[in-house]
Amino acid sequence: MRVTSPGFKANAGRALTDPQLQKALKRLKGGFQVARLKAAEQLPEFEALRDQAREIKDFTLAHLDFYLELFEERVGFAGGKVHWAANASAAREIVLDICREAGAKKILKGKSMVTEEIGLNDHLEAHGLQVIETDLGEYIIQLRKEPPSHIIAPAIHVSKDQVSEDFRKHHTDLEPKRPLEEPRELLDEARQILREHFLTADVGITGANFLVAASGSSVIVTNEGNGDLTQTLAKTHIVVASIEKVVPTMEDCATLLRVLSRSATGQELSVYTTFSTGPRRAGDPDGPVDYHVVLLDNGRTQLLGNEFREVLRCIRCGSCMNSCPVYGAVGGHAYGWVYPGPIGAVLTPALVGVEKAWHLPSASSFCGKCEEVCPVRIPLPKLMRHWRERAFEAGKAPATQRFGLKIWSLFARRPGLYRLATRLASRLLRMLGRKRGSLSKLPLAGGWTSERDLPVPPGPTFSDLYHRRKS
Amino acid sequence: MPTKPEVGLFVTCLIDFFRPSAAFAAVQLLQDAGCSVTVPKAQTCCGQPAFNSGDSGDARAVARTVLKTFAPFQYVVVPSASCAGMIRHFPELFKDTEHAETAVSLAARTHELTGFLVDVLGVTSVRADFPHAAAYHDSCSALREMGIRDQPRQLLRSVTGLQLCELSDAETCCGFGGTFCVKYPEISGKMAAAKTRDITESGANTLVGPDMGCLLNMAGRLSRENSHIQVRHIAEVLAGQTAAPPIAGPETE
Hints:
The complex is a heterodimer. Chain A is an alpha/beta fold. Chain A has 24 helices and 12 strands.
């Protein structure tokens, strides 16, 4: 996927003036945010569970090598195979090889952010395979050739009418005059189309919400059941998951499941929580014949050893973006890559480089709502600040900002000089606008005055008034 | 008789420059509550603009002034949750330096004004008149960094004649965010517009808050929208010092 994060400002500008998108984003507030709050209120031990969830992830990260190898061993016991992928291209090749060996033509996919991260669909299609997304939101954006704009609601930016239009354009075998306005009609049509694909798929690819080391199981949560059909009907099931998805035991997984859906959609549990342990066994009525897990690093072991380690606790619930006022203003596409919102602002610089993605951690008011709702208590604002440090060291901050900071620091560390400078600045501002009390324009202050008036001090600085009064 | 709490008032750069009346009000509130208040002359800024811009070097250089100036006081009180919150970050900023210990000790003695009055001094009411419908703005640093939510409301309810209004989405950022508001003005403006809409719909004719940055942002936006709503720092209303024109308001005759 092309990285448009360097153009964040322009992306955001377009998003802010897109009436359809703005209408769609309004739904976030009343939907996910309210639902999460309600679910949290109904569970007295929710805050304690968040602490436990954080501890489970921290413990696992501290022993990640051990639990990954245990997972590999247990997958083997169950008759499956683990593949290690150091980076995106290695992961793509592994998946392509498995598909080729299976003689596959049609690949079905459950919803997976990590396959977006490695650009899997494009790669498989470039090698002649047909790839079909089966999560309704993912299916819609696949038709529209768009990236997801939210990690759990990928088509949140698309309106019902647009979906109707897309379906008419692509489902050309169906009666052109069919009624297709109501959500129920759209859903039924998608189901009808996807059923055919499920029955004729050669390979099913899913992500994983968790990997359980003790049993060698991969776990997915879905609300549509598409994940189950994807992974049980095809002959081959490939799980693509990043290494931090592993947890030691089923009990740990259960604890994390209790905070995951509540934080994401406000559900106690998703409609489907599906555990896959190896391929079909003798006597099983269904299930794949081959079961593979591709474990992706893609820079994560780097994070394990630096100041961004805590981001690896993320369980991809999306609550940080649901509650983020910046995400709420510009939507997911403005962030310019796979992961939007506060988690994207921390992950993207790690995965595509701070040179390209420095805007993302910079474009935050540090309001702290993301940290407040994060089920595993990732200090997202602090981690964004660490990226700002890296960007500053790399000289990425705009020259005006660097220059401004230098000037400010020059005065702010010298109280005497500072008093003199503020005395003069105050006098100047009052000359310009004391009567009205504010200025609507001021040279060099366009960033402020483009959106709001600049209040003018009503008199001399406090320091001047107070110390004059005292003496 | 117990000795008076010794308070060093950190005025903050924005109040010093834009809102002297808020600092005078803070001095009075602290004195009324029985504190001995000192306003050290050698104070400028807490260092937050550099800290949040990733410029730790300049942040430390400026913060060192704060450390040196305020280390001797029993308490450091700040009429701004954002700047008090910055001082709470000093242990991180000065980690592994010669100032590490002082930073930890200073952070522990630093309080936001209304939190200090209620939580540390046990103040439950103030003597002030303000016959207006006033909405309180929860600044993000107050709410999420300093744990300030009920304290200012409790004090505001004790003001004679004041009718306290609540904003819908009270816990959502106003779009100030320090340098954020000038780095990404369109996004900040969108957030500010949502906030001024909530303020207008609350029925309040006055907006008060604990943080000057947010207040400048909202007052500036309300002024741009030609709103009649007046904006003041919460200390002014609690101290009954409301003679100054409101923030961004025209000069009174």
